[in-house]
Amino acid sequence: MKDDDRPLQIRAEEEYRTQFENKTLAPFYVQWIATHKCNFKCPHCGTAADEAKPDELTTEQILNVIDQLAEMGTKVLSLTGGEAILRPDFPEVMQRCKERGIMTGFVTNGFAIKENRKMIEEAEPFSVMVSLDGYRDNHDKIRGTKGAYAKAMEALDIFTEMELPVVATATVYMEENVDEIPLIYDDCVAHGSMRHRIQTIVPEGRAVGMKNDPVIMKKVFKYVYEMKQKGHNIEVCEGHGYLGPLDGVIRPPFFCGCGWNTFTIMADGEVMGCPALEFPELYSEGNVKEVPIADMWWKGFTRFRETLFDDVPQDCKDCDVLDLCRGACWLQRVNGDYCFIDTAREVAKELGL
Ligand SMILES: C[S@@+](CC[C@H](N)C(=O)[O-])C[C@H]1O[C@@H](n2cnc3c(N)ncnc32)[C@H](O)[C@@H]1O
Ligand code: SF4
Ligand code: SF4
User: Fold this and answer.
1) Ligand nearest the Cα atom of residue 254
2) Phi, psi (5° rounding) for residue 97?
3) Over the stretch 165-202, which tens digit does the pLDDT of each residue have?
């Protein structure tokens, strides 16, 4: 067979489109914002987590969702929030996933892990991601909770002892922590983290108005490039969109799988390509309380599958890499700050790439 040397993005879209036409397309990875309840109130929280919302999915509703996802071919359900482990039905949800052959993962601030150790062990998650947004006292300051850093490290130790297949860490970078990322990385690795994800800020929830200066972003791109050259398992997140010469270098090639292999279920049951929290009325595909998920999957998501290039801003329509970038990370785009290719090109030039 002739080698296909077209870029991954083009091949992936073609493959998923064929699967869609053949009715074999499956939402492989589904994210669930399990609750808005949180034991922290981070000032930069994109979910604006605080108390649980009154209309969050009931146990019966989420168990039914899991059954539907299993029928549709979902292989991974990732729980985030808020703090997903604060849902009293966390064990039941994880158990149902296990019974239905769906692997689970969750994202946590790490603060309530020790007291929930047994429950998490029994749930047998496949992966966990612990968030670290500063080194030691600065993490506590950024996250607004004294002792948060020590607890996050303790959580990493516990997950490592549990021998979970994937123990990862994540940092939202900003001016206040950018120079500490190497210290955070070293400490996380010493406590068992296998992978570090460096996230750009999404300006929604309590983070509305926050954004990173290109100078900060350049520092991060250079640091991640140098670390990857040395073989470390660290990468920037897909929220940066297509990164030109750094794409596939400081992160796997950019491809937004929303509506192709993934979607997000919001705490109240709204289904969105990805969690554009501020705009459910514009971007929801329907609510699991009212619509079977398979109906949404086969009849909805057209904004991702058909009209993508019509929807993008004029700058993107005129762009020479639109076929690779496809208008960047959708979540960043709907929140207004999405094109970082000039920064990536400058860094690549400075690095001599
Ligand atoms: C919303 S939190 C929920 C899980 C858990 N409470 C935690 O903090 O890890 C999920 C991830 O999103 C990150 N995050 C929070 N606010 C963000 C924002 N405005 N932009 C980008 N990432 C953000 C967190 O650091 C965490 O890694
Ligand atoms: S970022 Fe996580 S820990 Fe912080 S308030 Fe939001 S949900 Fe809670
Ligand atoms: S202009 Fe649009 S399509 Fe081009 S790189 Fe920027 S975000 Fe991507």
Assistant:
1) 3
2) -60, -45
3) 999 999 999 999 999 999 999 999 999 999 999 999 99
